[in-house]
Amino acid sequence: MTQRLSGEWFARPCIAVARALLGCTLVHRSADGVTAGRIVETEAYLGPHDRASHSFSGRITDRNRAMFGPKGCAYVYLIYGMHWCFNVVAGPPGRPQAVLVRALEPVEGVDLMRTRTGRAGETTRALCRGPGKLCAAMGIGRGLYGADLRGNTLYLLPGALGCGERIARSPRIGIAYAGAFAAKPWRFFVAGNPCVSGPRNLNRDAAGIRPA
DNA sequence: TGTCCGATTGGT
DNA sequence: CCAATCGGACAG
User: Fold this and answer.
1) For the whole model, what pTM was predicted?
2) Which strand B bases fall within 7 angstroms of a protein CB?
3) Rounded to whole angstroms, how far apart are CA atoms A127 and A204?
4) Is strand C in 7 Å reach of the CB of A187?
5) How many Å apart are A166 CA and B6 C1'?
6) What number of H helices and E strands is found in chain A?
7) Nearest-10 Cα torsion for A81, A84, A90, A91
8) Which of A65, A120, A159, A206 has the most CB atoms within 10 Å of its CB?
9) pLDDT digits (tens, 9 = 90+) for A95-111
């Protein structure tokens, strides 16, 4: 059996986890079949001081409870009443931090992804491009809230970047309301990868992208 | 209990 | 640029 990422692996600063997840593979073994994708874009959401984080202020609610739980579990939430977003709970012990997985490079179960999303004509590279789209394609929803990613249903396999691949970073997407934290460069992605959502190319400083 | 609004997406 | 769509968060 292939080795999953361990509990210790997640117990380090959230930003380090966000970077290290790039190149790892997310697998979902569901009743409908297996889907998998290589992670190419992430964002780090820190603890109570990070205005953009759902753990901002440190208050535990029904929604953010998973962020306060064990590292290496899934924090799943519904956004805009229609799209699910998937996070990996990470960070130092006791800190409510998580990494949003924003895009995958489809690896397995592409046909099932097309079926789930209802987009028969979608290009493979666009199937998991965006946090809501990847959850739809991977079949991730409320049922996987708090799921232990070291189990056999939804889990992560170690991976690395290819020799030609470079990590780039930029401010996080869609959090303009977060004051000073809106500018923090806590979005990480594989530079130039066509499966990345939003701005993905170096040489385009308008989006605040820089090598990492 | 009432109101406001979002870590998005796709169509105009 | 805007609507979809609904539950979380918070004020009262």
Assistant:
1) 0.96
2) 6-10
3) 24
4) no
5) 32
6) 4, 9
7) -30
8) A159
9) 999 999 999 999 999 99
